[in-house]
Design goal:
single chain; 294 residues; alpha+beta; three-stranded antiparallel sheet; 12 helices; 9 strands; 53% helix; globular
């Protein structure tokens, strides 16, 4: 398949084809300013590197580090080694990846779960680095007939591999704290988190403040925030906003008006909806609707 030489062209290809695209970048490639787009992103540092900013969290990175970025997360290289910085960036359409996930294998896991210790970054072992680059090499080969089928097969094998090592690294990172937080992850509290998620998902149009949720489930504000972050890897407010934006995008694509969508998704007023949607998606609700309803 075509390997792009810029992030912009790879992102555009991903959006246009609704599949995935790969860019191999060098130190002479101008880095993008802080941005959000409708793609998942896998960022792998081959050599060089300095600092990555993702949703205001700063990561120092070295060769062999890999980042998993959700489409709702703002990110950019805040500092780089201009003399020697090579990297591979994979842009992935979330719907494309979800299509191949199953009840037992969630290929979105590395993008949607945030380990409280690791965050977005993994530091790969030498063997894991070689395995990752092997898949990139396979995807860069020109094979003629059956190219699309073979690329899809290699891509799915790559994403299965990445999710496997992501889960393994998460387990290792959490090992020291699992004992103290075991009561949060199992038993009644695990069921309670499921109840909280169900309640939020079924009541997106309603007031979903932390105080209201805490009162509804007879918990203190601080305890509710703690168990939610530990179980899901994200904050309550960020989860609610992401779910509302996701629902809003679907409704706008179906032909709902901007005002109606904002109200039904729980944003309260147009100004709040406009600011939240534009910040996350990168364009206004009206412009998004015009693109999706063509």
């Amino acid at each position: 398949m075509l390997i792009h030489d810029s992030c912009q062209s790879a992102i555009q290809s991903c959006v246009d084809t609704k599949t995935f695209a790969i860019a191999r970048l060098y130190n002479n490639e101008k880095t993008m300013s802080i941005h959000i787009h409708d793609c998942y992103e896998v960022y792998f540092s081959i050599c060089g590197g300095k600092q990555f900013l993702i949703d205001n969290r700063v990561y120092e990175f070295e060769p062999g580090d890999i980042f998993f970025i959700n489409q709702f997360e703002s990110h950019y290289l805040s500092k780089i080694d201009q003399l020697n910085h090579m990297r591979v960036v994979i842009s992935i359409c979330p719907e494309y990846l979800k299509r191949f996930s199953t009840e037992f294998t969630d290929l979105n896991y590395c993008f949607t779960y945030r380990n409280p210790v690791l965050g977005h970054k993994l530091s790969l072992s030498e063997e894991e680095r070689k395995r990752f680059l092997y898949f990139i090499h396979k995807l860069s080969e020109e094979r003629g007939f059956g190219q699309d089928v073979l690329d899809q097969a290699v891509f799915l094998e790559l994403m299965t591999f990445l999710n496997c090592i992501f889960r393994l690294h998460c387990i290792k990172a959490l090992a020291p704290v699992l004992h103290s937080e075991a009561q949060i992850r199992t038993g009644p509290l695990h069921s309670q988190i499921d109840e909280i998620l169900d309640y939020i998902n079924q009541n997106l149009a309603e007031n979903l403040s932390i105080s209201m949720l805490a009162a509804h489930f007879y918990l203190s504000n601080s305890y509710l925030c703690k168990i939610f972050k530990t179980a899901t890897g994200t904050t309550i407010n960020r989860y609610i906003t992401a779910k509302r934006i996701s629902q809003a995008k679907a409704m706008l694509a179906e032909g709902y008006s901007v005002a109606e969508t904002g109200s039904l998704c729980g944003f309260g007023d147009y100004s709040n909806f406009f600011k939240s949607f534009t910040k996350v998606v990168g364009i206004s609700p009206k412009k998004y609707a015009s693109f999706t309803q063509r």
